[in-house]
Amino acid sequence: MLIRSITFLLIAFMFTGCGSASESDQPIITDERGDDADSQNDNNSNEVIVIPPDEESNESEETTVPINYSWSAPELLESEGGEAGLPSVDINSQGDTVVAWTQKEGTAINVHVTYISSTGAEITSTLNDPLTKSKIAESNYIYYKRPYAVVSINETGQAFTAWTSILIEESNMNGAYVASFNLADNSWNAPVQISSEANSMIDMKINDSGMAAIVWTQASGNGNQLFISQYSNANATWSDPILLSTGSISSPQVALTSTGHSVIVFEEYSSELSANHIYAMEVDASGVKSSKHKIDTQASSAGELIVNINDDNQIAVSWLQDDDLNEQTDPWVASYSSGAWTEAVKINSEHGTTTIALA
């Protein structure tokens, strides 16, 4: 709850302390622990036991090297008047971080973004005109638990942020927009309009090769159309929108493989089944799309999906599904690898209601 007219947006980072050794002195890591290590484990310390090489004999002496994990103090990113919207954050293994959020400024709701390099340098920008409205993005979080603006960063430090705007009152922007971070001069480039019609949910990912994908929905008749646009470093432009599906579609999310293959997962209400279900589609790097595939296997309603991908291009999707027989809600999961989906599995059969699935 906000209790002051000024909203503070905070972020903290976790750092790992580690040591190094020359190649000739490189220790051997072992899982075998002596009495001293057991005693220290009783004191809840996190340690790695290493055995340095003995140059004069085959005997080894165990040495304890502590691994220290700690959180930095919270850092204030912005303290302007007005309410800050739910932030989106991403970080790479180098420590480069990007954070985006919406900031209410008078009658406007603007998109703000901060790029924090691994050296600690911070670049904060307002990515749209002061008169821009983002009311539709605000309502998307209320109903679909999605951030107002989304961000993604890869291992080279290349980053994007994307959002949707709608024409309301004095607003002068409408549709889906994306802005990229310019590594050459450490600044955010001007936003690029991906679609002039997009007015609803959006998601985006970038891979380490500089390929990216944005998915969004836009109103069409009594339902929504689902679109995707793809980006490649080769031509540094976004493709024309590709229509994926039309229906009562919501909450689209995209996972992007190392080859630029997009896997899009979304919710869609089926009038035939009288329930909401989880579906997936694929689009390869050249823009060829697959047919729609239903992931959940139950007749009851499903929703609140979360998507994630690992370095081996394996994708996991979790969601909540009603269990009408027991009058409860259960979490389910399915995975994707090498072009195929596993069968959905219920991961909790206890009586009760799961309120949100976390991946």
Describe this structure in words.
There is one protein chain. The chain is mostly beta strands. Helix content is 5%, strand content 47%. The protein has 2 helices and 29 strands. The protein has helices at residues 35-42, 135-144; strands at 9-11, 14-16, 28-29, 47-51, 63-66, 69-71, 75-78, 88-91, 97-105, 108-116, 122-126, 149-153, 159-165, 175-182, 187-188, 192-195, 202-206, 212-220, 223-232, 237-238, 242-256, 262-270, 275-283, 293-294, 302-309, 315-323, 328-337, 340-341, 345-346. The strands form 7 sheets. Strands 17, 18, 19, 20, 21, 22, 23 and 24 form an 8-stranded antiparallel β-sheet that branches. Strands 12, 13, 14, 15 and 16 form a 5-stranded antiparallel β-sheet that branches. Strands 25, 26, 27, 28 and 29 form a 5-stranded antiparallel β-sheet that branches. A hairpin with a 2-residue loop joins strand 18 and strand 19 (223-232). The longest helix has 10 residues, at 135-144. It is globular.
